[in-house]
Each structure stands twice: as structure tokens, then as C-alpha cells.
Amino acid sequence: MRIFPGPRLGLxxxxxxxxxxxxxxxxxxxxxxxxxxxxxxAVPGATVTIVxxxxxxxxxxxxxxxxxxNVPFLPSGRYTAICELQGFQTxxxxxxxxxxxxxxxxxxxxxxxxxxxxxxxxxxPVLVSDTSSLGQVVTGQTISCSSRGLPxxxxxxxxxxxxxxxxHSWPTARAxx
Length: 177
Description:
The chain is mostly beta strands. It has a domain at 29-128: Immunoglobulin-like (Sandwich), CATH 2.60.40.1120. Helices cover 12% and strands 32% of the residues. The protein is built from 1 helix and 10 strands. Strands 1, 4, 7, 8 and 10 form a 5-stranded mixed sheet that branches. The protein has a 5-stranded mixed sheet with strand order 3-2-5-6-9, with no helix packed on it. The radius of gyration is 26 Å and the shape is extended.
């Protein structure tokens, strides 16, 4: 007797895969950009290395024929971006901060130079993405009791022992004499 998992198992696997992919995308950021030379021409084959300043995790991308690179699924944090290609000065950008669900554009303008020359750029503003997507980082301060209009039952005093805390307090009617 053969037992086939049937379409239910396949459907469950597909849904689980979609949820995990969506979750991974929603909790990460993306860095994109274009590499050009002094004549504003695209520079293909440039190596762009993205380094997480906290964990020293490295991601490497190579610019395509149009000089574009794309590094998706980066965890939130502080980053350094390094662009290098033989015959050009190495450019290093430090202090890039990525937040959840953010797309940051970091363009590089390579200058001809010896292999040993490099340019360090610190604290320059990073161009924000060209997309219209919105995202927001939620911190503990954002989620505070009902001061922000959230329906949370919070209080500075502990609940009474032996009886549940009421979610709402409604005034009671009193009989008039």
C-alpha cells in the first residue's frame, strides 16, 4: 500500500517557504549603487565589499555592465562599503547605518590612481533609495502602554491578588434618593 503525501503537504511547504522568505526580507536591508569613472561612464567589474562594523561579516558584489551592484538581505547595523578595481583608487565609505526594511543607495566615483592609493570618506550622507516603500524601526519606547493609543492593559501598579485586572472601567449608575 502506497501513501502519498498529497497536495496538502505540498501546499503547506509552499506557504511555509513564502512566510520564511517574507520574514527574512522584512527583517533585513539592502544596499545598491552605481560605480562610475570621472567621465561618468559605468565601470563594470568593480568589487564592492560591504563589511558589518559590529560583526565583521563581509558580503562581496561585483558591478555589472551598467556599473550597478546590489547587496540584499543585510541585517540592520553599521556598515563600511569598499569599492576597488585595478587601475583606480580604492574608495572606502564608513558610518553607513542600515535599518530594517531600508534600501540605501551608495554610489562610487572611481578616480584613476595607483593600486596603493585609497580614498576614505567618513560621515558623508548616503543617498536614500529611489523606491516609495515605507518602513519603520519599532523600539521599546514606541510600544508603551496606552500613551500611544495601543490597546494594551498596562499600569504602574501590580494587579490585585485573587481577581483579574479589568481591561476597562465603566462608571456605574447610582440610584437617586
